[in-house]
Amino acid sequence: MENIPALTNFLRTVSDACLTFASELETASATPAPAEDIELPRGRGQRQQQILELLPTTDDAGMKTADIAATIEYEVPNTHSTLQALERAGLVEMVPRATPQRWRIAARYRTTSAVFKRVSSRIRKGEWASYGDISIAVRGDTAAARGVGRAAATDPEFPHPERLLMDDGSVNPRWHDSEGRGPEHCQLLLEKQGIKFTDGRASSAQRVSWALLAERDKTEAVPE
């Protein structure tokens, strides 16, 4: 029994170290990453590759088949056939409700700061989302979560970066605003917007899902 205090201190030390390591892992998952971290698709043949290199340079409005054909110097019918093949492969998509038909790179490869900002703008007052939620809403997986963090941390026009939290609802320990204020200020901003915190974590009931963000992005105008 005389060894119990030593054992207790040892277990507490190990526990603290594990908690610190877990926090560092969470932070790393939200640490911004360059766009190069996201692998772009490769096409079969010269024409597919030309299109796959062209479309990521356009905005979400996409390009008309004729414009794509003119840019890559290819016949319009053949360009359309190539686009259809790329669509079947899940590499490009038609822009919904666009007339005439317009094409853009598939959602999972649209990982620019502008896209992250637009989807993040769908988070309303009294709501929060994680970096991963934005990535899933944009491209269908969490591979761009770090890129979302980069955009939120470095782009002065990013909409309400305080509304993006870690997956467990805690504020990223590295969070800071343009005036150097840290995580405590982020939590204060959210509390003023109606977010409730318990033990440093935002209420899960106020988390907006990636599915709802994606739906808003398709059906609603971009907030001013």
Automatic annotation (TrEMBL):
InterPro entries: WH-like_DNA-bd_sf, WH_DNA-bd_sf. SUPFAM superfamilies: Winged helix' DNA-binding domain (SSF46785). It comes from the Bacteria. This is MarR family transcriptional regulator. It comes from Amycolatopsis albidoflavus.
